[in-house]
Amino acid sequence: MTPVDLWIPLLAEYGFPVVVTFYLLHRLEKKLDNVTVAVEQLPGKLNISD
After folding, report:
1. Distances 25 to 32, 45, 49 between C-alpha atoms, Å
2. pTM of the full predicted structure?
3. Which of left, alpha, beta for 48 (phi over 0: left; psi -120 to 50: alpha)?
4. Per-residue pLDDT tens for 15-33?
């Protein structure tokens, strides 16, 4: 089953806005994880101790 075959039933069931929202959140997840890691490492790079 191809990714398109998975998205078409979701589109029919839940509607275009919901499917687009989930698609964008899925694509941005890794980028948001990278931002979280960068923010967590920031105090160490600025030599600020807890």
Report:
1. 10, 29, 34
2. 0.46
3. beta
4. 888 878 888 888 898 899 9
Identify the sign of the CA torsion 37, 39, 45, 50.
negative
* Cα 26 to Cα 14: distance, rounded to the nearest angstrom: 17
**Two tokens at 6?**
């998975």
What is the CB neighbour count within 10 angstroms for residue 19? 16
Q: From CA 8, how far away is CA 13, in angstroms rounded?
A: 9
Element (H, E) at 8: helix 3-14
